[in-house]
Amino acid sequence: MRRNDKEIKDKSTIERILNDAQVCRIALCNDNKPYIVPMNFGFKDNYIYIHSACEGRKIDIIKENNNVCFEVDIKHELVKSDKTCNWGMKYYSVIGFGKARFINDNNKKKEILNIIMQKYSENTQKTFEYSDSTLNKTALIQIKIEHITGKKSGY
Fold first, then answer.
1. Which of 102, 33, 40 shows the shortest CA–CA distance to 66?
2. Which domains does the chain have, with CATH numbers?
3. Would you state the pLDDT for residue 2?
4. Is 97 in contact with 67 (CB distance < 8 Å)?
5. Poorest-confidence range of 1-10, 32-41, 103-112?
6. How many CA atoms does the CB half-sphere of 153 hold within 13 Å?
7. Would you say residue 112 has pLDDT above 70?
8. pTM (2 decimals)?
9. CB of 18 within 8 A of CB of 152?
10. Is the Cβ–Cβ distance between 59 and 112 less than 8 Å?
11. β-strands 47-53, 88-103 pairing
12. DSSP labels for 47-107?
């Protein structure tokens, strides 16, 4: 990282950012063409979890190249200035790299969907109900985090 003074080295702070973020941008590459998509996600035990329809561009790309870069950010605030080029942005962000793999076992799919649902649900229940037809038409993707960095600006 170019700006060491902005680097977040504390693992618990990086995990808090991952838990607080509402959107995870997943970056993929196929035939030397980048592709990025915002996703709902879950995070637990050094894994990012995403879900999708079983077909589509990101599914096709992951099948060909399972290398993934991801980014989340929180607490955005524009910082204005009287000088034109002195405007800035306050934020916390995390960028990471990992390998994606598809989860096909329906019991494991339920576990992963519960992680995602617990993140977004105001309901404090630990498990949710999923029909077999829903599980069969849902792709669950587990991204093992291999490298991760955090950055803060303005805080």
1. 102
2. 4-153 (2.30.110.10)
3. 67
4. yes
5. 1-10
6. 15
7. yes
8. 0.90
9. no
10. no
11. unpaired
12. EEEEEEESSSHHHHHHHH--EEEEEEEEEEEEE--SSGGG-EEEEEEEEEEEEEEEE--HH
In sign, the C-alpha dihedral spanning 51, 56, 59, 62 is: negative
Beta-bridge partner residues of 95: 71, 149
b/e string for 70-84 if b means 16 or more Cβ within 10 A? Answer: bbbbbeeeeeeeeee
What is the predicted pLDDT for the residue at 154?
86
Provide the β-strand partners of residue 8: 150
Q: Distance between CA atoms of 149 and 96, rounded to whole angstroms?
A: 6
What residue type is assigned to position 132 of the chain?
Answer: D
CA contacts within 13 A on the Cβ side of 23:
8
Q: How far apart are CA 41 and CA 127, in angstroms?
A: 16
Q: CA 114, CA 35: separation in Å to the nearest integer?
A: 27
Q: Is the pLDDT of residue 70 over 90?
A: yes
Tokens 């303005």 sit on residue: 154
Q: Which two tokens stand for residue 95?
A: 């960028």
Q: Which amino acid, one-letter code, is at 121?
A: S
Residue 92 has a CB neighbour count (10 Å cut-off) of 22
